[in-house]
Amino acid sequence: MQKPAPNDAPIHELLRNRWSPRAFADQAIPQEVLRSLFEAARWAPSSFNEQPWAYIVATKEDKVNFEKVLGTLVEFNAGWARSASALAIAVTKLAFTENHTPNRNAQYDTGAATALLSVEATARGLAVHQMAGFDPDSARKTFAIPEGWEPLAAIAIGYPGDPDTLPPKLKERELAPRMRKPIREFVMTGSWGHTAPFAAK
């Protein structure tokens, strides 16, 4: 199922078609495709080229580890995410490797890496749904995540599926129109709250 964004200005089709479904098809992701998703993440920009991201990943074929990731999700997300072909947890390193000072851009950079992963997934006919609804402490204990690393988000990856497989309320959300703030609300110039002229339409 495709759900292109109703964009107000021209953007690349990959960006128009990237969205976060909850219905996934029962279809395995080839290993080489998974590798390409994380290769895309690898080439994200980062402060001082620190590359502070790491991902804990489990495919549905790896039942033990898939269930371990699933077990870190809140109940609502676990209900639909179990149909994904792969689950992951994005983790970030909070300090620079060289001097051990805090890296205030670590979360930002890890988000950028996951954004590139999502675009690569879209280019390959896959969908990615990122989730704040998981238990970071559970993830830390379950996967022995070391001190100084912070679990940030859980991620479901798979081929888009049939919304009819979802419970009625989730199906309704799946089929609802996509909505975003207009850029005039968040693109400013001069001082806070003053919309940039090019964004004013």
Decide which structural class fits the backbone: alpha+beta
Shape verdict: globular
CATH topology-level name: NADH Oxidase
The biggest sheet amounts to: 4 strands, antiparallel
Q: Catalogue the unreliable spans.
A: none
User: How many whole angstroms does the radius of gyration measure?
Assistant: 18 Å
N-to-C order of helices and strands: HHEHHEHEHEH
Q: What is the number of independent domains?
A: 1
By CATH, the superfamily comes out as NADH Oxidase
Q: Count the E strands.
A: 4
Tally of helical runs: 7
CATH architecture: 3-Layer(aba) Sandwich
Mean pLDDT across every amino acid position: 97
Q: Helical amount among residues, as a percent range?
A: 25-40%
Please give the CATH class: Alpha Beta
N-to-C terminal Cα separation, in Å?
31 Å
Strand fraction equals: 5-15%
Strand order of the largest sheet: 1-2-4-3
Question: How would you sum up this structure, described in words?
Answer:
- 32% of the residues lie in helices and 15% in strands.
- By secondary structure, it is an alpha+beta fold.
- It has a single domain (20-177), classed as NADH Oxidase.
- Helix 2 (31-42) runs antiparallel to helix 5.
Reconstruct the topology from this structure:
Layout: H1 13-17, H2 31-42, E1 53-59, H3 63-70, H4 75-81, E2 86-93, H5 106-123, E3 127-131, H6 136-142, E4 149-158, H7 168-175
Antiparallel strand pairs: 1-2, 2-4, 3-4
In short:
With 201 residues, the protein is of the alpha+beta class. Helices cover 32% and strands 15% of the residues.
Protein traits:
single chain, 201 residues, alpha+beta, NADH Oxidase, four-stranded antiparallel β-sheet, 7 helices, 32% helix, globular
